[in-house]
Write a structure and sequence with these properties.
148 residues
């Protein structure tokens, strides 16, 4: 995250906070708002429409994250915090399952396993066993009798 991105997000958060109830705004510490004001990029072109949901507007991810943190830390009730924790837990489980069953990862695993199997096949070649022919055995026995 660079300074300009944080500056734009700070400005967007300040604009959104203008439309929040005074009771909720007073719960956010003044130091937090001062940090936003200090880092805000006032040249950033951003218009917030309070009639639309935040997801329907062109708001950066960082802005959404800051707003979510402020809500969770300072505004949300205990019941709302529990719901947020459950939602985060479910989202984490979904992400883990997506990683686990990601098709591209499955195919990478198969590609990596193939050379190992080929190496095993090369190392486990059958041993050649040369059985002596029956007539050669008889011939050697006869030669053995005559040499004595």
């Amino acid at each position: 995250m660079d300074k300009q991105e944080f500056g734009n997000a700070s400005y967007e958060v300040l604009k959104i906070l203008e439309y929040i109830k005074d009771d909720d705004l007073k719960r956010i510490p003044q130091e937090e708002i001062e940090i936003l004001k200090k880092n805000a990029n006032y040249n950033h072109d951003f218009h917030y429409n309070p009639d639309k949901k935040i997801n329907e507007q062109s708001v950066s991810k960082l802005t959404k994250g800051i707003i979510a943190q402020y809500f969770y830390k300072y505004i949300a009730t205990e019941k709302q915090k529990e719901k947020i924790k459950l939602k985060q837990k479910c989202d984490l489980q979904i992400i883990e399952k997506e990683k686990q069953y990601d098709y591209s990862q499955l195919f990478k695993k198969n590609k990596n396993e193939l050379p190992k199997e080929e190496e095993k096949k090369e190392n486990v070649l059958p041993i050649e066993y040369k059985k002596e022919k029956w007539y050669k055995k008889i011939f050697k026995k006869l030669l053995g009798f005559f040499r004595r």
